[in-house]
Each structure stands twice: as structure tokens, then as C-alpha cells.
Amino acid sequence: MSAEPISTPPGPWCPDPMRQQRADYTVEDLLKLPDDAPRVELVDGVIQVTPSPTLGHQDICSLLWMWLRSHAPADLRAAQAVGVELTANTSRQPDVLLRRAEVPSDRSMLRPADVVLAVEIVSPGTRRVDRFAKPGEYAAAGIPFYWRVEQDPVHVYAYRIGDRMGPGGERQYELVTDGANVIELTEPFEIKLPIAEITP
């Protein structure tokens, strides 16, 4: 007499290896992920699980979100870690963003036209993506403004879409200002941001 195998509960969700190889995931697939799925981004049809951020990263993220929330005009709203559909097979989740206030609050995926500013806080494991890949993707999708926040010490680089074209004919960001003490901008609204207020 043989013992019956012990049934084990299914493990945590992970992407299908065959679909990952084929790179055929779409933004529609992301909207159908189960509740236990980790935080992911979609890049050219491949699902990428995003690493857990550090406490320092999250502190800067929260402080910046609160600052933008309390200073942005009524037609703009600050949000954190909301997906943005850049193309049918690419979706990113900026650390912080400013969206148009008229976007319904039940949306979990935004379009580039909904987003005015995308912000990425650079961590050791995301340097190349946050400095090169994401700004290129955000600019190509037409998001008007991008901020990159470096840590230790906190330093903000503020970009806007310019007239310069990339090698593929897409528009690119140009640096407007940067600073480790204060950032002053006239777009996307009148901003005077003391960096100490977003430094943990």
C-alpha cells in the first residue's frame, strides 16, 4: 500500500516562463494579475518584478509625495506607485507622479496623457534604469516633465521635454535645473522646493 502524496498549496504568483521567453505579455495582462502578485513593471512584453525599496528610498518618496500633494494646484494630484501604460507592451510605475485631477480615482493604470510629472528615486539597483531607460521611455510617451532624485545626499534633477530628437525620432528630455539645496521651477507649476523638506 502506497501513501498518497501530500498536497501542497500553490506557491506565490510568478510570470509564465514561456510567455516571458516569447515577450508577449501586454498591459491588459497586468490588469488581470492576481492579488498576491508582486509589484511588477512590463518592458517590451517581459514582466519584471521590481525589487523592494529601502527605507531611505521610501522616506524620500513619502516626503516628496506629501510636499507635492500640499503644494500642487487643484488641477493636479500627487500619487505613488501607480502604473502608467507607455505602450501596449510596456508599463512603468514611477515612484511619485503628478496626474491630472480629472482622472477617475478608481483607475489603477494611467495613460501618458494623464501624467504631467514622473519622478524616480534612484537606488543602487536601479541606477541605469532610472538614469537612462525610464526617462527615454517617459519622454517618448510624451510625459512633459521628469525628475530624478539621487540619494545620499539628496539631489534633484528636473527635466522637461525638449525639441531635441533621439536616434529613433522620439523627443528627449532636457535638464532645466538641479540642486541639493533648493529647486525653483515655473513648470508644471510655481515650485520652490527646499531639498531639506524631502530629506529623511
Topology:
Blueprint: H1 17-22, H2 27-31, E1 40-43, E2 46-49, H3 55-71, E3 76-80, E4 83-87, E5 90-92, E6 96-100, E7 109-110, E8 115-121, H4 127-141, E9 145-150, E10 155-165, E11 171-179, E12 182-185, E13 191-194
Parallel strand pairs: 4-7, 8-9
Antiparallel strand pairs: 1-2, 3-6, 4-5, 6-8, 9-10, 10-11, 12-13
Order of helices and strands: HHEEHEEEEEEHEEEEE
What is the annotated CATH architecture of the largest domain?
Alpha-Beta Complex
Report the C-alpha radius of gyration, rounded: 19 Å
Low-confidence stretches: none
The strand line-up of the biggest sheet is 3-6-8-9-10-11
Largest sheet: 6 strands, mixed
CATH topology of the largest domain: tt1808, chain A
Can you tell me the CATH superfamily of the largest domain?
Answer: tt1808, chain A
Taken from the alpha-carbon principal axes, the silhouette is globular
Please tell me the overall pLDDT.
92
CATH class (first level) name of the largest domain = Alpha Beta
Number of strands: 13
Counting helices, strands and paired strands, the structural category is alpha+beta
Task: State the helix count.
Answer: 4
Q: Separation of termini?
A: 64 Å
* Strand residue percentage: 25-35%
| Tally of domains | 2
- What fraction, in percent, of the residue positions are helical? 10-25%
